[in-house]
Design goal:
The complex is a heterodimer of chains A (229) and B (225).
Chain A lengths: L22 H15 L4 E5 L1 H6 L3 H7 L4 E5 L5 H9 L10 E5 L9 H18 L4 E5 L10 H16 L6 E4 L25 H21 L3 H6 L1
Parallel strand pairs in A: 1-2, 1-3, 3-4, 4-5
Helix pairs in contact in A: 3-7, 4-5, 5-6
Chain B lengths: L22 H12 L7 E5 L1 H6 L3 H7 L4 E5 L5 H9 L10 E5 L9 H18 L4 E5 L10 H16 L6 E4 L25 H21 L6
Helix pairs in contact in B: 3-7, 4-5, 5-6
Classes of the chains: A alpha/beta (229), B alpha/beta (225).
Protein name (chain A): Platelet-activating factor acetylhydrolase IB subunit alpha2
GO cellular component, one term (chain A): plasma membrane
Main location (chain A): cytoplasm
């Protein structure tokens, strides 16, 4: 059982400003302000896989209409996301669905630790946003050819498949299929740098993700109907 | 005078594969392989600001019609671009223009060192691609508010603007359309993480670059064979 203390991936940790322009904190502060101003029904939180999604047309087509906010920060690990969620990015809002996508940048951690970090995020969300249904996206394969990180990410997904069903209001959406070809290669057409998705790559995962979000939104009691009366 | 040994920014250096999936080298080899049967008129080389440009519609609108290739790699500093060029990344092609946009990731280097690194790239291109005009794009401001990196990038641009005119076939373009507002802030509408450009940021920046490329291509014959 991984307690927060013994798993570094499950210990909230703010990013240090190594470069000198404090961009991580600026983005976090902007997200905290968004929570004060906005009323999202759907919240996306995670690393650059989340952040870049908002740069493509598909975000405006599929997720803006759902009143979605994007709290992705490139380079983030589970520890960074935990810190952000504990320090204001879950305050003043009451989203119906929260999408969590993080873990591929946890280079210092084992697959077990990464899975533990993601579970810690889900448990935190359950406590602070008990009404929210959580979708955890699987980690994607990476690198042009087979390499240890693919195995590690697959192992994280495997662990989550076993552990997430034991937590409340959360499900794992496995979108990792369809990227590795029969020769073991990943194409630049899906991931322009063998890690980050192209528009075409995002289209593949956003279809099932959007469907699931719509399903979960429809299941939620419509408090708005009562307010409109 | 920047001696390669003394200036880390002008010492060709491969990017170490610390993550473990060999992506940087894979992309470098892909650039070489994919260019074997292409005849680009324009090649862009640099860091993520170059690489990400190709993910937006504006690439197809403005630069694909110019038969452009994109050799951008996120995270690259001048020393990494130098290494890629030295290792023959452009060995199969002879473009008319090479656009160089790199330097913002040279952490730990002084403005003088970064400028020296960019000059080394320009000189290497003049050797390898004597027919090409080299367009060096100025470094953009970064960070939400004023910070030392803005000052360093500004100083790099100042040095380049003074020195590049002395190099044959090279020119400097400051394509910043005014990303820093009067209150010193950069908007996330232009740079979603206060470093990388959004679609909106590219739309503000690219027209001037595009106009320059059209002019240079129209002027045509530079130092031809």
């Amino acid at each position: 059982m991984s307690q927060g203390d013994s798993n570094p991936a499950a210990v909230p940790h703010a990013a240090e400003d190594i470069q000198g322009d404090d961009r991580w904190m600026s983005q976090h502060n902007r997200f905290v302000l968004d929570c004060k101003d906005k009323e999202p029904d759907v919240l996306f939180v995670g690393d650059s896989m989340v952040q870049l999604l908002q740069q493509y047309e598909i975000w405006r087509e599929l997720f803006s209409p759902l009143h979605a906010l994007n709290f992705g920060i490139g380079g983030d690990t589970t520890a960074h996301v935990l810190w952000r969620l504990k320090n204001g990015e879950l305050e003043n809002i009451k989203p119906k669905v929260i999408v969590v996508w993080v873990g591929t940048n946890n280079h210092e951690n084992t697959a077990e630790e990464v899975a533990g970090g993601i579970e810690a995020i889900v448990r935190l969300i359950n406590t602070q946003q008990p009404q929210a249904k959580v979708i955890v996206l699987s980690l994607l394969p990476r690198g042009e050819k087979p390499n240890p990180l693919r195995q590690k990410n697959a192992k994280v997904n495997q662990l989550l498949k076993a552990s997430l069903p034991k937590l409340a209001s959360v499900q794992l959406l496995d979108v990792s299929g369809g990227f590795v070809h029969s020769d073991g290669a990943i194409s630049c057409h899906d991931m322009f740098d063998f890690l980050h998705l192209t528009g075409g790559g995002y289209a593949k995962i956003c279809k099932p993700l959007h469907e699931l979000i719509m399903q979960l939104l429809e299941e939620t009691p419509e408090e708005k109907q009562a307010a409109l009366a | 005078m920047s001696d390669g040994d003394k200036n880390p920014a002008s010492t060709p250096t491969p990017l170490a594969d610390v993550q473990g999936d060999g992506r940087w080298l894979a992309l470098h080899h892909r650039f070489i392989a994919d260019s074997k049967d292409k005849e680009p008129e324009v090649v862009f080389i640099g860091d993520a600001l170059v690489q990400l440009l190709q993910q937006f519609e504006i690439w197809r609108e403005l630069f694909s019609p110019l038969h452009a290739l994109n050799f951008g790699l996120g995270g690259d500093g001048t020393q990494h671009v130098l290494w890629r060029l030295q290792q023959g990344e452009m060995q199969h092609i002879r473009p008319k223009i090479v656009v160089v946009w790199v330097g913002t990731n040279n952490h730990g280097h002084t403005a003088e060192q970064v400028a020296g690194g960019i000059e080394a790239i320009v000189r290497l291109l003049q050797e390898q691609q004597p027919q090409a005009r080299v367009v060096v794009l100025g470094l953009l401001p970064r960070g939400q508010g004023p910070n030392p990196l803005r000052e360093r990038n500004r100083r790099v641009n100042e040095l380049l603007e003074a020195r590049l005119p002395r190099l044959p076939n090279a020119c400097f373009l400051d394509a910043d359309p005014g990303f820093v507002h009067s209150d010193g802030a950069i908007s996330h509408h232009d740079m979603y993480d206060y470093l990388h450009l959004s679609r909106h940021g590219y739309a503000r920046l690219c027209p001037r670059l595009h106009a320059l490329l059209l002019r240079l291509l129209g002027e045509g014959q530079g130092a031809g064979p």
